[in-house]
Amino acid sequence: SLSKIVKDHAYLADIDRLLVRSWMSLLHLDDLMDFLAVVQVELLDILRYIQINIKSDINPSMYKALKDSSSHLIRKESNRNQSFDDKYGECCLRTAVRLLGSVCHWIKEPGHCDVPLQFLQLVCCISKIYSQTDSETRKRTQQESFGETLHIITKWRRNTFINKLLNSWNRSFSSPIEINVWTKLLSVSFSHEEQTSLWRNTFLKDFEGKLKQEDRVHQIGIYSKMMEELSDEGPLLCIIEKCALEAVAYICQ
């Protein structure tokens, strides 16, 4: 009924833009996409709304709402053809990073890992738009946001995938979902090449560290069994191969 009232009176939001915020305070998170279909809402208002309304009990409807809203924002912001104003852009980027932190804090189930990854993609998208205009303030804000994002995702990955990497009995990965997450994390790019390089090297080092916790024979086995299947995975295959060769050398000694 609320959605119908808003739809019938959507023209009022064109007269008073602050009215949108009042209406949004009455919405449930799973009503957000219906609301956005009839009322134009600024990015920062949407980010703040989700940040306020995300709760610990992520039920199926809330999970779907988070997934749909993040997809919507990524599509919308990817088509933005001009940078943000300085202050507005800084607020959007910092709020998006805080929201990513909340999403990663409440969603740690491997089966729902697509939502944190989508909010990570949204942060990267906003960061790239924000960097279209160069200034010392923007560089500092971006560097701080990047550092916080790296910390959030590193912690989330470790808390979400706590099991061993390999199944010793059949020489396979314990969780195909985890390997998919590693691959996606390594494909993330930022507006500055040095940030992208630091991000990739951090997660490659993390993956290598986790793989080396496995028995050396199993490190060799996973490479022998999976090297063709992983041929498209690039950096992951290089690390698996490196660990296997080091394990062979150690055993031969």
UniProtKB/TrEMBL annotation:
UniProt xrefs under InterPro entries: RNF213
Domain of life (superkingdom): Eukaryota
Protein name: Uncharacterized protein
Native species: Xenotaenia resolanae
